Amino acid sequence: MSKMIDEQTKVIADSRIRNYELYPQGLQKIAWVKEHMPLLSSLEKQFREEQPFAGQNVVICLHLEAKTAYLAKVVKAGGANVAVVASNPLSTQDDVVAGLVHDGIYAFAWYGATTDEYNEHIQAALDFHPQLVIDDGGDLVSTLHLDRKEQLVEIRGGCEETTTGILRLRAMEEQGVLNFPVIAVNDAYSKYLFDNRYGTGQSVWDGIMRTTNLVIAGKTVVVIGYGWCGKGVSLRAAALGAKVIVCEVDPIKALEALMDGYAVMQVSEAAKHGDFFVTVTGDKNCLVGEHFDVMKDGAILANAGHFDVEISIPELHARAFSVQTVRKNVEEYAMADGRKIYLLAEGRLVNLAAGDGHPAEVMDMTFALQALSLRYVNQEKLEPGVHRLPQTLDELVARMRLSASGVSIDKLTQEQRAYLASWGHEDVTQ
Q1: pLDDT mean over 300-304
Q2: The domain spanning residue 223 has which CATH number?
Q3: 140-192 confidence digits (pLDDT tens)
Q4: DSSP codes, 249-260
Q5: Residue burial 371-384, b: 16+ Cβ < 10 Å; e: rest
Q6: pTM, whole model, 2 decimals?
Q7: Residue 283 and residue 247: Cα distance in Å, rounded?
Q8: 329, 353, 377: which is the final residue of a domain?
């Protein structure tokens, strides 16, 4: 017992969080999501028995809210020493990180961290000397390669959560600098078809609606980017009664949006019509000065991409004669011609900076993939680079989700399998 108390005292002392006394509320939040995450609950039991991470140090760099917290606890149940750090300065929930610290998990994050504090937290987490990492957006992995090269030999492998992170990792791989294997969790079917589409779609509008308390029905929503996240945002906007305009640079995705029933046009034209704008591209400067110049009075801007670069905030500032916070997470930019444009959550991920992120049931699938990917990269001897998750694990998560939902599906008969594998006339004609 005294050893446990000593360990907890050390975790509390070494962590960097806002207020440890918030831990009861954090534990309550974690307990709530656990009730709605049956896949992770199953893996927690399995990992506790198998101890796949025994003796390993694991650093998890994700949005630090209750669902992430439960993932950290599942990894710890598998025998790991775990530290968490924020992947975004506005998505950390201070009570949740306090709850993790209370349960013996090191934490380096608080809500509203400055850029310097955010970077210091990542450096502090890397002082933990991980052998395994989970990243969201690539900041942890890039910091390792830029500032902590001497630690690269300690890393067995990692997992990446999001599209932006995969883009950065592939750039590192192409330049020959990625020093260890990383599983592209975002590229798993059970991730992007559900998390990116249904999770992002629901949570973005949850964040926008709770922040603005405005009606969506009858308004015009401009969605910039029609990847799986953009599809989800558009789908939910239409379901709420909005008229949807999609802006794209990829002709195939643009055509898909058109055939899904949405108007498709260039941003320069869409800027004149939108009541709400949601950027979800992973690229910078999707909304810039020329677009702000023609927007309606009262236009509302939100970003659902990983970094706060999709809306050019410097150009928005340059055009405003005054900027003020008019509601939590709502900044009003007053233009010289009398128009007002509103920016949500400082242009950061609106679903997490101004909401609770994806629904628990959706993140249950994503974090089950993360847990299984971490076990896989720890057990296999993979070459440095970006690796797809094996299809067997992808399908396992889908089957687990179906089972948890009380759904059973058919299986091919031996005859059907043989037919699908055939090609000669004698095999296909009867």
Answers
A1: 97
A2: 3.40.50.720
A3: 999 999 999 999 999 999 999 998 899 999 999 999 999 999 999 999 999 99
A4: S-HHHHHHHHHT
A5: bbbbbbbbeeeeeb
A6: 0.89
A7: 13
A8: 353
